[in-house]
């Protein structure tokens, strides 16, 4: 599984990465977590507002911090 956290490195972006890392570790999920700060790559996903979370190429959320429950749901699909 490839997980990308899109954002400039702001506190909200870091919080999303923290949530994802925590859930990946707790659930022993084999995933590569990448922090994407390159604005061109972020725009390639059609994301205009960060933070955003992309799982296996699919933008799951943009512009806000998702709940742990929601992230867990996405990771278990």
Structure description:
The protein has about 80 residues and is an alpha+beta fold. It has a single domain, classed as 3-Layer(aba) Sandwich (Glutaredoxin). The chain contains 3 helices and 4 strands; from the N terminus they run E-H-E-H-E-E-H. It has a 4-stranded mixed β-sheet with strand order 2-1-3-4. Strand 3 (about 50-55) and strand 4 (about 60) form a beta hairpin. Helix 1 (about 10-25) crosses helix 3.
Kindly estimate the percentage of residues that lie in beta strands according to DSSP.
15-25%
* Gap between N and C termini: 11 Å
Please report the first level of CATH classification, the CATH class: Alpha Beta
Q: What is the fold named in CATH at topology level?
A: Glutaredoxin
- Give the strand order, joined by hyphens, for the main sheet: 2-1-3-4
CATH architecture: 3-Layer(aba) Sandwich
Mean pLDDT: 96
Q: Total number of β-strand segments?
A: 4
Count of discrete structural domains:
1
Query: How do the helices and strands follow one another from N- to C-terminus?
Result: EHEHEEH
Q: What would the principal axes of the Cα set say about the shape?
A: globular
Number of helices: 3
CATH superfamily: Glutaredoxin
Radius of gyration: 11 Å
Give the low-confidence spans. Answer: none
**Largest sheet descriptor:** 4 strands, mixed
Fraction in helix: 40-55%
Structure classification: alpha+beta
Protein name: Thioredoxin
InterPro entries: Thioredoxin-like_fold (IPR012336), Thioredoxin-like_sf (IPR036249), THIRX-like_proc (IPR005243)
Family: Belongs to the glutaredoxin family.
Function: Does not function as a glutathione-disulfide oxidoreductase in the presence of glutathione and glutathione reductase. Has low thioredoxin activity in vitro.
């Amino acid at each position: 599984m490839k997980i990308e956290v899109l954002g400039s490195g702001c506190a909200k972006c870091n919080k999303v990465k923290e949530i994802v890392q925590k859930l990946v570790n707790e659930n022993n999920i084999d995933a590569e977590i990448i922090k994407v700060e390159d604005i061109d790559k972020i725009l390639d996903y059609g994301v205009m507002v960060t933070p955003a979370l992309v799982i296996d190429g699919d933008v799951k959320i943009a512009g806000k911090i998702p709940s742990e429950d929601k992230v867990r749901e996405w990771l278990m699909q």
